[in-house]
Amino acid sequence: xHDKEASMRFLIASVVMTFAMQSFAFAxxxxxxxxxxxxSAKVMDELVKGPDSSIPKELLKKAACVxxxxxxxxxxxxxxxxxxxxxxxxxxxEGKGAFGxxxxxxxxxxxxxxxxxxxxxxxxxxxxxxxxxxxLLKDKxxxxxxxxAAAGPVGRNASAETNIRLEAEILTYAKSRGxxxxxxLKGSSLRxxxxxxxxxxxxxxxxxxxxxxxxxxxxxxxxxxxxxLTKASAN
Length: 235
Hints:
Strands 1, 2, 3, 4, 5, 6, 7, 8 and 9 form a 9-stranded mixed β-sheet that branches. By secondary structure, the chain is an alpha+beta fold. The chain has helices at 2-49, 57-62, 92-95, 130-135, 163-166, 194-201, 207-213, 223-232; strands spanning 65-74, 82-90, 103-108, 120-127, 141-142, 149-151, 170-176, 179-182, 189-192. The longest helix has 48 residues, at 2-49. A hairpin with a 2-residue loop joins strand 7 (170-176) and strand 8. Helix 1 runs parallel beside helix 8. Helix content is 40%, strand content 23%. It is built from 8 helices and 9 strands. It has one domain (45-232). The protein is globular and about 75 Å long.
């Protein structure tokens, strides 16, 4: 009888410990997601306040979706790879309306035209076409493979010399030392960060519900980012 009671107490203690560890892990994830949203909003704020040689305003106004990857890092192991976690928001009404609730994303792999060394850069991605907008619903999309991607032109007004690049479905930029420049992310793979989305919205949620349907309320922790995106792309 004593052994049975001891076993029961051990089982209850194990369940309680497991629940406590899961709660701690969820709380840590919540903090990381909030930090990611805050850092992404700061990147967009700095874009608005930046010099004229920044991402062209006309492109921001035309973009169906905008993604921000704060502190993209070069992979510690391997050659030419990188990894990061960020967020993307799409315009409602088939890419023509106001920015809607964001979806958390991750990026990894590939090689790109900026040797980071031990540093990191903030990345902004403009999704310029309905097809590129739909690509965000996939489990994985490869830049330069599944979707045509190119380093974006800089300057408040894109010149005629950038027409070839403007045909790309996705334009990519990196901010280093306070300045934005076009960057190639060819070979990198974008994926939905489902775990982070569940943390942000309190339930499992599909990217389509957030980016296409546009009926999910914007979380309080994401409002600063949406405000920054709206300001950056305003007339």
